[in-house]
Amino acid sequence: MYAPSSSRPQSMANPVDYSRYSQDQPQYASSQRSQSRPPAPEEQYDYTSAVDLPSPDGDDFYTGSQSNFQDPSYSVSGQSVRAPSPPPGPILDHSHLRPGKQAALLSHDRTLELYRTNAKKTQDPDVQFEFAVFMVDASKTMPIPALTPGNVMDVEKALKKREDLLLEATSLLKRNADRGHMPSQYFLADCYANGIGTHKGKQDFDRAFPLFILAAKHGHPDASYRAGTCCENGWGCRRDSAKALTFYRKAAAALHPGAMYRLGIAELNGELGLSRSPKEGVKWLKRSAESATAEFPHALHELALLHERGINNVLFVDYEYAAELLAQAAELGYAPSAYRLGECYEYGKMGCPQDPALSIHFYVRRSLVSTNIAAQQNHRDACFALTAWYLVGSPGVLPQSDTEAFLWGKRAADAGLVKAMYAVGYFLEVGIGCEVDLQEAISYYKRAAEQGDKRAAQRLKSPSKGPIAAPGGPGSVLHRDNSLEEEGGGDGKGGKDKDCVIM
Q1: Which of 62, 195, 311, 331 is 20 to 30 Å from 397 at the Cα level?
Q2: Peptide bond preceding 471: is omega within 30 degrees of 0, i.e. cis?
Q3: Which ranges constitute the DSSP H helices of 350-417?
Q4: Which of 3.40.190.10, 3.20.20.70, 1.25.40.10, 3.40.50.2000 is the CATH number of 378-503?
Q5: What are the Cα distances from residue 200, in Å, to 24, 26, 203, 308?
């Protein structure tokens, strides 16, 4: 058995954030688990529930789906982890910048031209690589005028300018890559994989995969990991689990947290041609958790779930340690962990005290400046949890606000949470936090009913003529007990209609 006291992983602080290079670009296969749904303690743990899997609309590490837990045959994949810039040093000439009272900001075009001049003065591939990265970054912030009937030509010129800038960057990267410059090989591959500098902004794994292979051969850990995801999922190549394992193991040998996490899940579930081995799987997850970053916090979350349930002869139940792991993942910005902690402090689960302030803190961190962990990332369950809190409020922590309840519920509903669709339909029907809008209410009821919500279907049936009946009124939607979420959960006590119990 693994004693958590002797091998508790610590998360790595201050990870490098390369997401700025792919802003507004399609992130292929990045996702997060959209919710944690632990079974009852007596149920056997299903390792497949610990896998986050991809979908087309990009949620974090894998792209999530509305089912939240997906087919475990799909792997951790496609995370856009950029190659780091060259080591700091006097690579570019900044002598034109004036300090102190003489400080002056240069125009966007002037700055770009100065960087270009510096890059042309040398054949140093590191200097050229940095300039190419700068151009990719600059293309993201290049202003594009709002399209109006009178400025079509201006918009076209701005878009052409951005396209030319990306073309210049990718051409420079390609020249360096052909000369064997490893950072250029990886960065260019990542651009292609994310639709940067490609035809119509479409992902091009046919060009990305060979470059991942080249950079992996030069010892680039991220490239090895990305090559593994390509082989596993058939992106730019044929599916080949054996080759995927080879690349994952090469990346894991260099302590790549994503590769170690993927190997851990594969061992737990018996994927990629491996036999199921919980003991080995836990070892890999612990190693991944020790190197966790903001891009790869998933092992911390999965270990927490495992310690919440335990594995016979491998891992024992340790609620305190599970909460500690969730806190580490939440601190790295992982929304599912923040949501799980919000639940624990709201309902007193996993040995956590019932604490409205901490619960709301993890659902959405609010201080002097409104920041967040889970809800602002549109983690739909966290959004809906805030709907419940705003309906009743918490003295000294969160003011009661029907308007905020409606807005957070709408955010959860628009993110695809079925029970939130029903709740928003009811809010619109009876005017909770919004104006009464029966047509919009029917629209949300229909969306919920189409996905199997029986309460929404029932609201649509009565009455068949005239507007929807509105029993109860605003004061009747104050239940927050999970036992009342399903149809028929209410018993009408206290004079409240069970059909109005929405939370």
Answers
A1: 331
A2: no
A3: 356-363, 380-392, 402-414
A4: 1.25.40.10
A5: 14, 12, 9, 46
Extents of the domains making up the chain: 378-503
Cα dihedral angle (118, 123, 127, 130), rounded to 10 degrees? Answer: 100
Q: Report d(CA 140, CA 32) in Å as an integer.
A: 25
305, 12, 188, 169: CA torsion to nearest 10: 130
Interior CA angle at 3 toward 259 and 322, to 5°?
65
pTM value is: 0.62
Report which DSSP code applies to 394: B
How far apart (Å, rounded) are the C-alpha atoms in residues 302 and 282?
9
- From first to last of its 503 residues, the chain has per-residue pLDDT tens of 434 444 444 443 334 343 333 333 333 333 333 333 333 333 333 433 333 333 333 333 333 333 333 333 333 333 434 444 444 444 444 444 444 555 444 566 777 787 788 777 788 899 899 999 989 988 888 888 888 888 889 889 989 989 999 999 999 999 999 999 999 999 999 999 999 989 888 999 999 999 999 999 999 999 999 999 999 999 999 999 999 999 999 999 999 999 999 999 999 999 999 999 999 999 999 999 999 999 999 999 999 999 999 998 899 999 999 999 999 998 898 888 988 888 898 889 888 888 888 888 887 643 222 334 444 455 778 788 888 888 888 887 778 888 888 988 898 898 888 989 999 999 999 899 899 998 899 999 999 999 988 888 888 886 443 445 444 444 344 344 443 343 333 333 333 343 445 55
Beta bridge partners, 60, equal 31
- Decide: 336 and 33 in contact? Cβ < 8 Å: yes
Is residue 186 within 8 Å of 223, Cβ to Cβ? yes
Burial 238-262 (b: 16+ CB within 10 A, else e): eeebebbbbbbebbbeeebbbbbbb
